[in-house]
Design goal:
Immunoglobulin-like; alpha/beta; Rossmann fold; globular; 3 domains; single chain; four-stranded parallel β-sheet; TIM Barrel
Length: 774
């Protein structure tokens, strides 16, 4: 048996043993209410959900009501209501949390790539499949008696505005439309909805909660913390950057919950902002269910921000703003006194409770034993099953981005390396936990990049080179010696969770510590150009490697999850053709001169402020949003017979306004839904894979304006699809373009307007011009 065959056999055996270990013990009954003997109206499944929830709330005493307004809600034994824990995590797989416990018969769950890498596939169908798997595994854990809640506080859909943000890894990237699409797909997959169509099902497989609403993308930078930060945000930036993902989460995804953030926006804590929670989320977007605070955010309104003068005022501020449950015990501690002081009313409390119990009822937790209800057949065998683990591998494969491939350094030749030697160097090369990112649970399998590469190369040696990603202690001499004695060298560098995570923002955009020196010296010593693999969530400035001919290839692999080591090896050896594209701009080190606290998206040439993200940034980049190479060559062009611009007839009589710069525009709201529907048209793109390998390829459709006056973006992603093409195969990809949605921009006051005149659709190097004249 060859080394590669042995390695794969070992992996298969480990997987089988893990599977058997997960299922040796019998499952316990999950907590539920309304057994067979109950005749209370709130247990009557024939009644409307709202009536059932109202009936239950009416039976609670004041003290019992207040006790239910924290994330750890105690049992109400006299009514047969079990305890419930609202806080569960499932960002990229079921994770350790208060509400879910992977320490019983089930001791692992599928660990998908960190979101930033999954997003890089630009494949909504893949996103949906992974999120379906997460929802099923969460329900499986619950049905196995290892959970006290099914409300999953994910996804994180804050726009990755600043490359230093420690939690950017949790997000789908910097584009609000792409982030909104991910939000909707995540919610639909987790909650048991179809990928498209109606979201009005009364049943929930699990409950998704989009966070953190809104303008939250700073954790701890130079002493400025998320708890005290007051984000100064314009109406224009709120309208076209910070809020759209949450709008999509609610309107397109049908989310059953959202989470308000720690920070203030323009002086008001988001959890105490009636305009955000009640007017915007519940009113404009029609969110019909619960809103939670981030953990201890209610206490912070009084204790840190000083916005509320007394604890009871903080309680009143959030409940009257529209929040329902406090992650923490602050309302449970001060709620009764707030009521008795007249700062909150009985209806303030009851409204929140009706929203909360309605979610628990939609989850089937007041319908008798969940095992015998709609999702009762989802058991332990759905956790870590083969289908989900294959998805984890595919998500890692399809997200990996090839950033550089000089002189065909990749793919490596399996036949040549089978009898050659390879040195695997770097702190991220042989530690499986580093593949997982943050908010993770114990994975089903654990294979490091070095272990995976051993399956391809008989003579493989690992040298860590640095103590960790911080690389403040290194052994460059040992690494150089390994490089000189090997035929091939692969370096695994980047960041880890000590460099970027919740409450940790970066101060620098370069590789930490002595990593750059290590890479350069190893590259100088190696016999052939080396391969550099970067494991990180946020972007790093690797200009030195991009310009160094002794570094033949650069691969970004994010935090690729449980199957990441295998996926990386398959990409390096050409068993998978990389097709990922960067979901964020990679900025140069000089960008750190921009204060992280400056929330403006648009550039200000008068002060030298460069703007943020590909939509508004005016400066040099290391790599651009949407960049990525492949082992194949692709071409794109608009198919003239399929792309049909809209007829503008029938929408005359609109009132036009002119900006100070002379731009004439039309208000989208005034146009109305009917006119907007009539303007929709198809844009058809012919894409061809010119070989030499089969591959999956993201097709990105952008809108470009003739100029960037009036705060227009330089360009805007308006559609994307992923298509698999065999070598030399061509296909037509159709996008539906809605001018009211895709050709509009945000005016300074936040209104959506369409500018009169030319607009350009762009895919690859091809453009299609159309003119809007009402």
């Amino acid at each position: 048996m060859g080394r590669r065959t042995r390695t794969h056999a070992v992996q298969a055996a480990a997987l089988l043993l893990a599977f058997l270990h997960l299922h040796v013990a019998a499952a316990a009954d999950p907590p539920f209410s309304c057994g067979a003997a109950s005749g209370a109206p709130y247990c009557d499944r024939k009644l409307p959900m709202e009536r059932r929830a109202a009936d239950l709330v009416s039976k609670l005493s004041l003290e019992e009501k207040i006790s239910q307004l924290g994330d750890e809600s105690p049992a109400v034994a006299r009514l047969g209501v079990p305890a419930y824990k609202w806080w569960s995590e499932a960002l990229h797989g079921v994770a350790w949390s208060k509400g879910m416990h992977l320490d019983g018969p089930l001791r692992a769950a599928t660990s998908f790539p960190q979101v930033i890498l999954t997003a890089a596939s630009f494949n909504p169908h893949l996103w949906y499949s992974t999120c379906q798997a997460i929802g099923r595994e969460a329900r499986g854990v619950y049905n196995n008696g290892q959970a006290e809640g099914l409300t999953l506080w994910a996804p994180n859909i804050n726009v990755f505005r600043d490359p230093r943000w420690g939690r950017g890894q949790e997000t789908p990237g910097e584009d609000p439309a792409m982030t909104g699409k991910y939000a909707a797909v995540f919610v639909r997959g987790v909650q048991g909805y179809g990928m498209s169509g109606a979201t009005n099902s009364s049943d929930l497989e699990a409950s998704a909660c989009c966070k953190h609403f809104t303008a939250y993308d700073l954790d701890n930078w130079k002493g400025v913390t998320r708890f005290a930060f007051d984000a100064k945000v314009t109406e224009q930036d709120l309208a076209d950057t910070y809020n759209p993902p949450f709008k999509s989460c609610v309107e397109d995804g049908g989310a059953s919950g959202i989470m308000c953030s720690y920070n203030r926006v323009n002086g008001v804590p988001t959890c105490a902002d009636h305009n955000l929670l009640s007017k915007t989320a519940r009113g404009d977007w029609r969110l019909s269910r619960y809103i939670t605070s981030d953990c201890d955010a209610v206490a912070i309104i009084h204790d840190v921000q000083g916005y509320a003068k007394a604890p009871e005022d903080a309680v009143a501020d959030v409940l009257k703003a529209g929040m329902d449950v406090n992650c923490g015990g602050y309302i449970q501690t001060h709620g009764v006194s707030a009521y008795r002081q007249g700062k909150i009313t009985g209806e303030d409390i009851d409204r929140a409770l009706r929203n909360l119990f309605a979610i628990r009822m939609r989850l089937g937790l007041f319908n008798g034993n969940p095992k015998y209800n709609r999702y009762g057949n989802i058991g332990a065998d759905q956790v870590c099953n083969k289908e989900h683990q294959d998805l984890a591998l595919q998500a890692a494969q399809d997200g990996i981005v090839l950033l550089k491939n000089h002189a065909g350094a990749l793919p490596l030749s399996k036949s040549k390396l089978s009898s050659s030697s390879i040195a695997v160097i770097g702190p991220n090369g042989n530690n499986a936990s580093l593949l997982l990112g943050n908010y993770f649970g114990p994975p089903c399998i654990s294979v490091t990049p070095f272990q995976a590469l051993q399956g391809y190369v008989k003579d493989a040696r690992f040298v860590q080179g640095c103590n960790a990603a911080v690389c403040n202690v290194s052994d460059i001499g040992e690494a150089v010696h390994a490089a000189t004695s090997a035929d091939y060298v692969v370096l695994f560098m980047g960041l880890d969770q000590d460099q970027e995570k919740e409450e940790v923002d970066r101060l620098d955009l370069g590789l930490p510590g002595m990593q750059e020196s290590l890479v350069n010296k190893v590259a100088d010593a190696a016999k052939k150009p080396v391969i550099l693999v970067l494991l990180c969530g946020g972007p790093v400035d690797v200009t030195f490697a991009k310009n160094n001919p002794k570094i033949g290839a650069i691969v970004w692999a994010g935090y690729p999850g449980q199957a990441g080591g295998i996926a990386i090896a398959q990409v390096l050896f050409g068993e998978h053709n990389p097709g990922g594209r960067l979901p964020v701009t990679w900025y140069p080190k000089e960008f750190t001169a921009v204060p992280m606290t400056d929330m403006r998206m648009r550039a200000d040439p008068s002060t030298g402020y460069p703007g943020r993200t590909y939509r508004f940034y005016k400066g040099k980049t290391v790599y651009s949003f949407g960049y990525g190479l492949s082992y194949s060559k692709y071409s794109h062009r608009f198919a003239s017979r399929g792309t049909k611009p809209p007829s503008m007839s029938g929408i005359g009589g609109l009132k036009a306004t002119a900006s100070a710069a002379g731009t004439v525009s039309y208000d989208v709201e005034e146009m109305g839904a009917e006119a907007c529907d009539r303007l929709r048209f198809p844009a058809v793109v012919r894409v061809q894979n010119h070989g030499p390998m089969d591959g999956r390829h993201p097709v990105l459709l952008f809108l470009r304006w003739p100029n960037a006056t009036d705060g227009r973006p330089a360009s805007q992603l308006i559609g994307f699809q992923s298509v698999h093409l065999k070598a030399e195969e061509a296909a037509h990809v159709e996008f539906e373009v809605s001018p009211c949605k895709h050709l509009s921009r945000a005016a300074e006051d936040g209104r959506k307007v369409i500018d009169q005149g030319s607009h350009f659709l762009k895919v690859g190097d091809d453009e299609f011009e159309l003119s809007f004249m009402a």
